[in-house]
Automatic annotation (TrEMBL):
<protein>
    <submittedName>
        <fullName>AraC family transcriptional regulator</fullName>
    </submittedName>
</protein>
<dbReference type="InterPro" id="IPR009057">
    <property type="entry name" value="Homeodomain-like_sf"/>
</dbReference>
<dbReference type="InterPro" id="IPR020449">
    <property type="entry name" value="Tscrpt_reg_AraC-type_HTH"/>
</dbReference>
<keyword id="KW-0805">Transcription regulation</keyword>
<dbReference type="GO" id="GO:0003700">
    <property type="term" value="F:DNA-binding transcription factor activity"/>
</dbReference>
<dbReference type="Pfam" id="PF12833">
    <property type="entry name" value="HTH_18"/>
</dbReference>
<feature type="domain" description="HTH araC/xylS-type">
    <location>
        <begin position="191"/>
        <end position="296"/>
    </location>
</feature>
<dbReference type="InterPro" id="IPR018060">
    <property type="entry name" value="HTH_AraC"/>
</dbReference>
<keyword id="KW-0804">Transcription</keyword>
<keyword id="KW-0238">DNA-binding</keyword>
<dbReference type="GO" id="GO:0043565">
    <property type="term" value="F:sequence-specific DNA binding"/>
</dbReference>
């Protein structure tokens, strides 16, 4: 990819966007100050959150346009590649919050950063903000930038990290709202998930590929694993892996009544490499071993 850029440090990214580096590990960027540019792809060595200022319909991911005109948030984790391929020249608009992993090492945010699963979402699963939510986001950015303007002192790191954590907690709340208000966009995902598992176990995939995984199901449904897992949890109360296990045990119960096959054959057909793993999971979920369940019924 010829137009792939790489930004390993906050300073490099600030230079690219005509932004002063006030802190080596964190920055708030006003993209309107950057020079006009072509769309590009970039590999980021730090966490990056983009508040994109677009009119409804200007930006399309897949077959869907954004629902809100006020802006959207896109989250990028270190090592991820983000951007767009196009030769069009455009003037960037919006704001960005970037912070290096070194900023949060040894802090509570560093320990719990993986719980903010939206850093693993695809761009089409971006957070669509209402006007009120956008104001809250900008207020968080303003408070962080205020601390950067003051200069670094013994309080700076704690206050900046606290404001980043507050911002991410707000984003978690906003995504909870989005799972409800944008339900029509992913309407039928659970039904398609159920059908996918039915087809999987009815085919020979379990024998050739193995047990279905969350990553496999998410890819088949054209969703990121993180977004898919969060969506299933919101809709069913179960994690995606728990849902798969529930379906697996349901299929196993039915097959156990086939007396022409022993438990080991059934385990292999379901995708288990070792029958004892199947027996252990079955007893854990049902309360009886496969043979005990067969004899009881």
């Amino acid at each position: 990819m010829n137009n792939l850029l790489r930004f390993d440090t906050i300073g490099e990214y600030n230079i690219f966007n005509n932004t002063e580096t006030k802190h080596p590990l964190v920055t708030v960027v006003d993209f309107s100050k950057a020079n006009p540019r072509q769309y590009f792809m970039a590999n980021f060595g730090f966490y990056a959150i983009f508040l994109k200022e677009v009119k409804c319909g200007d930006l399309i991911y897949g077959k869907n346009t954004y629902d809100y005109q006020e802006g959207t948030l896109v989250f990028v984790a270190p090592g991820q590649i983000a951007g767009a391929n196009s030769k069009e020249i455009y003037q960037p608009k919006g704001y960005g919050l970037m912070f290096h992993p070194d900023l949060i090492h040894g802090t509570s945010l560093g320990r719990f950063i993986k719980e903010y699963t939206f850093f693993g979402y695809q761009s089409k699963e971006a957070l669509h903000l209402s006007e009120r939510e956008r104001s809250i986001v900008l207020d968080c950015f303003t408070k962080i930038d205020y601390e950067l303007e003051r200069g670094i002192d013994k309080h700076s790191k704690r206050i900046i990290i606290s404001n980043i954590e507050l911002f991410l907690d707000y984003c978690t709340r906003f995504y909870d709202r989005q799972f409800i208000t944008r339900n029509h966009v992913y309407q039928g995902v659970i039904e398609r998930f159920e059908n996918l598992l039915n087809e999987y176990f009815e085919s020979e995939k379990s024998q050739t590929i193995g047990l279905p995984t969350v990553a496999y199901c998410a890819e088949e449904l054209n969703l990121s694993a993180n977004y898919f897992g969060d969506l299933v949890k919101k809709e069913t109360g179960k994690s995606a892996s728990e849902y798969i296990q529930f379906k697996l045990i349901d299929v196993a119960k039915e097959r156990i009544f086939n007396l022409d096959k022993n438990v080991s054959q059934i385990a292999y057909e379901l995708g288990f490499k070792y029958p004892q793993h199947f027996a252990r999971l079955f007893k854990q979920k049902v309360g009886y071993s496969p043979l005990e369940y067969r004899s009881m019924n």
